[in-house]
Amino acid sequence: MESPSDRITAELIFQNLQTKIVGKTLHCFDSIDSTNRRAKQLAGEGAPDGTVVVAEHQTGGRGRLSRSWEAPPHSCILCSIIFRPALQPEDLFRLTMMASIAAVDALRATAEIRAGIKWPNDVYAGEKKICGILTETECGAQAVQYAVVGIGINVNWNLKGYSELGCSATSMSDVCGNDISRVRLFQELLRLLDMRYGNLHDGKGMHREWLQRCMHMEKTVRIVSGRETLEGIARGITEQGHLLLESADGRIHDIMCGDVSLRL
Ligand code: BT5
To answer: What span, in angstroms and rounded, lies between the C-alpha atoms of 213 and 15?
Structure first.
């Protein structure tokens, strides 16, 4: 059962929020279609760098390629952060890297869960997805106008009894066997994002830290990218976020987007 003191409200989040930019402006919703959609709208209206939109429930939560993101009300973290980074458009994957690193570290700090990053935008606990990230950007002729980074973390949700998603997804409570304070987790996530955002210029450092948390480097993987399927060994990732895959003939493929599966 959820404790009323663990509702995500602005008042609770602002208590002890130790950030300089991220979450200084916070929009909390009980129910909304999608925090990413709302954040994009706010960004278009001029919302400041670091503005956060968070909701207890989404009626139209989305993933990449028009896929949907599910979560029961009052059980998960569903948030989007508006960033106005001093980055070239080709370096924007760094924001997804930053969010993945922050999510992995927040799971560990609040519940000692050792999670790993699966390229390009997933966080896994063992063989199941526990967090998804959706970065959407708006770029002008040469500069980035804004980016919205949406983060969904499965927190207090019994997915074992959930037939459709239960095979591929898990939650923090499923992993730990007890409920987790969503307020504490969310504050920690915002703190870690804020800290990393302050170091965003350090692309090499971010790249290194992402690789340290990646779960499939030097492993055999299958990548589905559009209609193409490739198998090989994941050899690395570029700073721009392209996966480098070595196929059986020794060729290195530079892959911009796709879905990785590890169980072949
Ligand atoms: C993602 O897409 O993983 C990005 C998800 C981002 C969600 C956040 S929630 C807050 C913000 N507002 C939004 O509207 N979105 C963001 P993708 O890699 O395309 O994965 C989507 C797939 O994951 C779906 O097709 C399902 O198979 C699966 N899925 C759906 N809900 C899930 C969940 N809660 N946990 C694990 N997997 C899920």
So the answer is: 30
d(Cα 88, Cα 178) in Å, to the nearest integer? Answer: 43
The total of other beta-carbon atoms located within 10 Å of residue 255's CB is 20
d(CA 152, ligand 1 centre) in Å: 7
- Residue-wise pLDDT for 161-185, tens only, equals 777 898 999 999 999 999 999 999 9
Ligand 1 centroid to Cα of residue 150, in Å, is 10
What are the angstrom distances between the C-alpha of 177 and each of 171, 188, 258?
10, 21, 33
User: The domain spanning residue 226 has which CATH number?
Assistant: 2.30.30.100
pTM beyond 0.85, yes or no: yes
Residues 54 and 148: their CA atoms lie apart, in Å, by: 13
CATH, residue 61: 3.30.930.10
For the CA of 76, the nearest atom of ligand 1? 34
For ligand 1, the distance from its centroid to the CA atom of residue 58, given in whole angstroms, is 11
Q: Nearest residue CA, atom 15 of ligand 1? A: 62
